[in-house]
Design brief:
Order of helices and strands: HEEEEEEEE
Strand order of the largest sheet: 6-5-4-7-8
Distance between the termini: 46 Å
Radius of gyration: 16 Å
Number of helices: 1
CATH class: Mainly Beta
Shape: globular
Helix content: under 10%
Number of strands: 8
Length: about 120
């Protein structure tokens, strides 16, 4: 059985980057392949030869739904975004009406503060 006790906690590192205003993803050092959600080993291959790298932040909306909030709270969207580097992540698109977000829309990531934490959101590109 492999001993992973010497590896850092990737989810905590990811959150630390966000708290610093940085959008970082893990990738395999050998192949350059990015993946998301942070973990101690790459999915499928199990490789632990990983590093943190800044993605372009560019992506395409893969799926979208509008959450209809109880007034006076505003409606908001929930999206799945396919990043240019390959991974898919859940977030929201800001800067336009929730109903205006469409599948296939090009978006760009940015990090915002939400309460005590940093989170990745997207704007139309």
């Amino acid at each position: 059985m492999r001993d992973f006790s010497n590896l850092q906690h990737p989810e905590q590192e990811y959150k630390k980057f966000l708290a610093e205003g940085k959008f970082m993803l893990q990738r395999n050092r050998d192949t350059g392949k990015f993946f998301f959600y942070p973990r101690i080993a790459e999915p499928v291959t199990g490789s632990t030869n990983l590093e943190w790298a800044a993605p372009s932040g560019l992506g395409t909306v893969y799926a979208v739904t509008v959450v209809r909030a109880k007034p006076p709270a505003p409606n908001y969207n929930v999206v799945l975004v396919d990043l240019a580097e390959g991974p898919r992540m859940m977030s929201r698109v800001e800067g336009i009406a929730p109903e205006a977000v469409k599948i296939g829309m090009k978006v760009k990531a940015r990090v915002i503060r939400q309460g005590e934490e940093g989170v990745v959101v997207f704007d139309p590109a």
